[in-house]
Amino acid sequence: MLARTALRTSLRAPARAFSSSSARQTKVAVLGAGGGIGQPLSLLLKLDPHVTELSLYDIRGAPGVAADVSHVDTDSKVKGFAADQLDAALEGVEVVVIPAGVPRKPGMTRDDLFNTNASIVRDLAAAVARVAPNAHLAIISNPVNSTVPIVAQTLAKAGVFDPRRLFGITMLDVVRSARFLSEITNADPKETTVTVVGGHSGATIVPLLSQSPFGKNITGEAYNQLIHRIQFGGDEVVKAKDGAGSATLSMAYAGARFTNALLRGLAGEKGVVIPTYVRSPLFEDQGVEYFSSNVELGPNGVEQILPLGPLSAAEEKLLAACLPDLKKNIEKGKAFVA
């Protein structure tokens, strides 16, 4: 009961003002700050009271983004770094958020991004291992199901992998679930929080509607349509942008929400619980080493991985469909580094 209450509290942070329950501040780097996600993410992190300094890096455009964001009247410093300044961008950083990579286009799946984004994420992770080995890493770059294992394997090769400090940001699935459920029930999205587990693509996304007082009575075709929209909500944005990109603004918002939760946990705030894709024991016996579920965050990063709780028969089926795909995605990431 305590964990559920904490989860609701964590996920209900106001959109325009992040929680600031502790005075501790942190230096944060955004790798890929010049991109469609990186720019709005940088702006939102400039508004976060836990951020004392922002280090913005990209192969192009980051100094300009930094100059622009630095004019926002909040008490944090901002510095931009060019393509040949990656190591300098990582010096003294405690949290690294990585949205770098190419966006999806119409007809592309997240797996279609693999060949390009895998090498980008690997190289950035290698730099973090070299310059900021104790930093906490939050991965946005798709496909998250595979890029998180890529980062883990890269850090492990360098001898600095700590599973408590590596996160895949799956918060957008939670944000979408709350919004879409609120549209059906005519409730405030703050009241329609849904725990989402599994991974961050298609059938690996498993919304636990039965655990929501607003979602547990959704059945039949309405249930099937809601599940499909949550699992493939990104396609709506890709189609609507007509080749001009994917979900950048909502992803930046979700990324900032997660980063704020991580910073609050690192600052010692109690009861910070949020879904995230981490090295997990929940389905390790089925060969699934990474899994997104409710995680309690704290000074060490991952403090506790919480159980899924009771599932409906429909959710058991969704989970059964999720695990084989998730296992393949994980193995693909590990094989890329090997």
TrEMBL record:
Gene Ontology terms for molecular function: L-malate dehydrogenase (NAD+) activity
Any single biological process term in GO: malate metabolic process
GTP-binding in keyword set: no
Residues in Lactate/malate dehydrogenase C-terminal domain copies: 170-337
Keywords, alphabetical: NAD, Oxidoreductase, Tricarboxylic acid cycle
One of the Pfam families matching this protein, by short name: Ldh_1_N
Stored InterPro entries: L-lactate/malate_DH (IPR001557), Lactate/malate_DH_C (IPR022383), Lactate/malate_DH_N (IPR001236), Lactate_DH/Glyco_Ohase_4_C (IPR015955), Malate_DH_AS (IPR001252), Malate_DH_type1 (IPR010097), NAD(P)-bd_dom_sf (IPR036291)
EC numbers on record: 1.1.1.37
UniProt binding sites for substrate: 104, 110, 142, 176
Known catalytic reactions: (S)-malate + NAD(+) = oxaloacetate + NADH + H(+)
Enzyme class: oxidoreductase
GO CC, any one term: mitochondrion
Chain residues that bind NAD(+): 32-38, 58, 117, 140-142, 251
Active site positions, chain numbering: 200 (proton acceptor)
Lactate/malate dehydrogenase N-terminal domain: residues covered: 26-168
Oligomer status and interactors: Homodimer.
The family this protein is said to belong to: Belongs to the LDH/MDH superfamily. MDH type 1 family.
Database matches in PANTHER family: MALATE AND LACTATE DEHYDROGENASE, MALATE DEHYDROGENASE, MITOCHONDRIAL
Name of protein: Malate dehydrogenase
Taxonomic source organism: Hericium alpestre
